[in-house]
Amino acid sequence: MDAGQELVVQSPVVNPAVSGPLVIAIDRAIEVVEAETRALRANPTTDLKPFEYRKSQALLDLTRARSLVPPSAYTEDVKDRLVDFKDVLQENVDLLTLHMNAVSEVVKMMSRTMLDQESDGTYAAPFPEPAR
Fold first, then answer.
1. Looking at the domain assignment, is residue 32 inside a domain?
2. In sequence order, what DSSP letters do the residues of 108-130 get, joined into one string?
3. Is 58 helix (H, G, I), strand (E, B) or coil?
4. Element (H or E) spanning 77, and its range?
5. Do 35 and 51 touch, CB atoms closer than 8 A?
6. How confident is the model at residue 103 (pLDDT cuts 50, 70, 90)?
7. Cβ-count burial of 20 within 10 angstroms (0-12 exposed, 13-18 middle, 19+ buried)?
8. Chain segment 19-42, per-residue pLDDT in tens
9. What mean pLDDT value characterizes the chain?
10. Angle at CA 103, nearest 5°, toward 111 and 46?
11. Which of 24, 25, 36, 106 could be disulfide-bonded to 65 (CB atoms 3.0-4.6 Å)?
12. Residues 6+ apart with CB under 8 A from 129
């Protein structure tokens, strides 16, 4: 190579057809997570077991599709969908955390009530004497 020649590094050509399965997998995963979020908002006592199965299947599909498409081949469409997926997941995590905290509070109250009902008061803290 002569001193006047420059080395040109070409970026990989991104083929949208290659990322097609990944786009489909991301869209399905978004759909499942959004459905669970909607169900929880509509009915906090909804059965989450079907969503657990569907989310596991979506994760498997995502993992398989991702292995077919190297990150260097991600189209802008894939990148945008991944950002959307991250936002949808965060909303879902926030809602599930809220529900788990509520369940934890209910369990604590029930535990205290059960302990109070079973106790004969022997080990209970005495009430403070009234101020004189």
1. yes
2. HHHHHHHHHHH--STTSPPPPPP
3. helix
4. helix 76-118
5. yes
6. confident
7. middle
8. 888 999 999 999 999 999 999 999
9. 85
10. 135
11. 25
12. none
